[in-house]
Every structure is written in structure tokens, then in C-alpha cells.
Design a protein that fits this description.
Radius of gyration: 21 Å
CATH class of the largest domain: Alpha Beta
CATH superfamily of the largest domain: 4-hydroxy-3-methylbut-2-enyl diphosphate reductase, catalytic domain
CATH architecture of the largest domain: 3-Layer(aba) Sandwich
Number of helices: 9
Strand order of the largest sheet: 1-12-10-11
Structural class: alpha/beta
Bound molecules: iron/sulfur cluster
Strand content: 15-25%
CATH topology of the largest domain: Cobalt-precorrin-4 Transmethylase, domain 1
């Protein structure tokens, strides 16, 4: 008898879960609703919401479509998006995750309070990620974004660094960037030791807990199916981490990608996913695996 289980620590993160419930509530009432950008990096979930009536638009369409209600996703938006939506007569339903909203406020307050001749903001994140675009917008783009230690040489070593993070980044890579930045700043003769650097690791607690939880789960099963959209950076990072713990890990974005030959001679199968993968999707994968593996 094969053991086939879903990782109880997987499923949507709080912020994504909240925005999807908000979308569903509005759509259930029959209200037309635009979604600004993909609500979640998960094409199946986006299609499901669109089947309920959500119309996904991109930022260039915001001032072109017929005015109505627009839902902002959990990643948050820069102030320019709110301005544009209001100028176009849109009613904004703000789905920004409260944790992201607090980070936006914090970055804005720190920026306007600091001496910008001697201090600089640095965000560990992806410059094309919606959350980081939203954070950059809080300070008129006056921030350097580093996605890895490779970007550190671009930082001005003569100014003190105030470091923050996009909430969905890898905590281990944050530590690498922290160390790399300290070494970079220490090279500057203008800096006093101990006055170079201030670090505020704003990676979400759900993300920090996810890797240890996934590692424990992945070790318990012979084979892991990791489910996420292939365009999810969180999904890619967690898949690679999962595979480093259990080399027999396969990355799928839908049940159609499951290859039954994977299960030959395998006695236990674990199913997990990214923070943009719903529990319903993981359960559907489980049902499909049961069909294929037990047939
Ligand atoms: S990862 Fe955390 S901060 Fe980011 S949207 Fe999800 S719950 Fe909010």
C-alpha cells in the first residue's frame, strides 16, 4: 500500500488567501471586477477566478477600460497606481497584504526621516517583482535593489546602508547579501566601523518557516511532487530547495504533467507546493496520483 499525502504546511500564504477570498466575495455578488495583474502567480487559479467573472487587466489598460471596481493584489502597488485608478474614476478594492502594507509604510517613514546625503536604502528583492515595484514607488524609486551578492558592487560604499527585503525572498540568500554588504562597506575608508549598516530582515514569517517545514516533509517521502506555476519565483526557489533535500522531486504546474512512470517501485509520495498554490490544487494532485499510482 502506497502512502500519498499532502504537506499540511503548504497552501496559499495569508495574503494571497485573503485577496482571493475578497475576489470571490465580490464576484459572488455579481459585481463586475477588474483584477490588476495576475492575482496570484498561478495560471490555474487565475483561470478559475476569470471563469467566475474576474477580468484581469495590466497596468497599461487601467486608464483605458470602462471605469469600475479594480482589485489590487496582495503584493501591493506604488502610489502612482492609486492616483491613476482614481483619476480614471475606478473604485479601488485594496487587496494589499497587511504585512506588505506595513512594510511600505516603514520604508516610506525611514526614507523621509533619514539624511539622504549620508544614508541610502537598499532592498533585497527582484526589481521586476510587483511587491518590489510597489516598495520602490514609496520613495520615488530612490533605492537600490539587489537580487543577489552579484549586485552589491553597485552600492555606494561611502553611505550608510539601510537594508530591507521583499517579503517573499529566500532567508538564506538574505544572510549572504547581508554579509556581502558588510564586507563591501568595510572597504570604504569613509566609514566608521559599526556605523556602516542597518539590517531589517522583512521577509515574511510564513516564508521563513516554509523551508524548514518543507525540508522535514520532503525527507519523510521517497518521491515529492512539487506543485506551482513555473512563473512563480517563490515556487522555483522552494522547488530547488526541496530537490536539494530529496533528489526525487518533480516540479509540476498541473495534473496533466504527472508521468505515471515516476511512481514505479515508489512506496511513499509527498505533495507540496509554493505559497501561490492552493490546498485544493494539492488535493486534486493527490487524487490524480492515487488514480495513476494505484492503477
Ligand atoms: S508572503 Fe507573507 S507578506 Fe507576502 S503576501 Fe504572503 S503573507 Fe503577505
Amino acid at each position: 500500500m502506497r502512502k500519498i499525502e499532502v504537506d499540511s504546511g503548504a497552501g496559499f500564504c495569508f495574503g494571497v488567501d485573503q485577496v482571493i477570498k475578497t475576489a470571490e466575495a465580490h464576484l459572488r455578488e455579481g459585481n463586475p471586477l477588474y483584477g490588476l495583474g495576475e492575482m496570484v502567480h498561478n495560471s490555474q487559479e487565475v483561470l478559475r477566478l476569470e471563469a467566475l467573472g474576474l477580468r484581469t487587466i495590466d497596468h497599461s489598460e487601467l486608464s483605458e477600460v470602462k471605469p469600475g471596481r479594480v482589485l489590487l493584489r496582495a503584493h501591493g502597488e506604488p502610489p502612482a497606481t492609486y492616483r491613476l485608478a482614481r483619476e480614471h474614476g475606478m473604485e479601488i478594492i485594496d487587496g494589499t497584504c497587511p504585512i506588505v502594507a506595513r512594510l511600505q509604510t516603514k520604508i516610506k517613514e525611514v526614507y523621509w526621516a533619514m539624511d539622504r546625503d549620508t544614508h541610502q536604502l537598499v532592498i533585497f528583492g527582484k526589481s521586476d517583482h510587483p511587491e518590489t515595484i510597489g516598495l520602490m514607488g514609496q520613495v520615488n524609486g530612490d533605492v537600490t535593489v539587489v537580487s543577489s551578492v552579484k549586485d552589491i558592487p553597485a552600492i555606494d560604499p561611502s553611505k550608510k546602508v539601510l537594508l530591507f527585503s521583499q517579503t517573499t525572498m529566500d532567508p538564506d540568500l538574505y544572510k549572504e547579501v547581508e554579509e556581502g554588504l558588510k564586507a563591501h562597506l568595510n572597504q570604504s575608508a569613509n566609514q566608521q566601523e559599526g556605523d556602516l549598516f542597518q539590517s531589517d530582515c522583512t521577509i515574511c514569517g510564513q516564508m521563513k518557516r516554509r523551508k524548514p517545514g518543507l525540508a522535514a516533509f520532503a525527507m519523510d517521502y521517497e518521491l515529492i511532487l512539487f506543485v506551482s506555476g513555473k512563473n512563480s519565483s517563490n515556487g522555483k526557489m522552494l522547488f530547488e530547495f526541496c530537490r536539494s533535500v530529496n533528489p526525487l522531486t518533480h516540479w509540476i504546474s498541473s495534473i496533466n504533467e504527472i508521468d505515471p512512470t515516476w511512481f514505479k517501485d515508489v512506496k511513499s509520495i509527498g505533495i507540496s507546493g509554493a505559497t501561490s498554490t492552493s490546498m485544493d490544487q494539492l488535493q486534486a494532485v493527490k487524487e490524480q496520483v492515487k488514480k495513476l499510482a494505484l492503477s
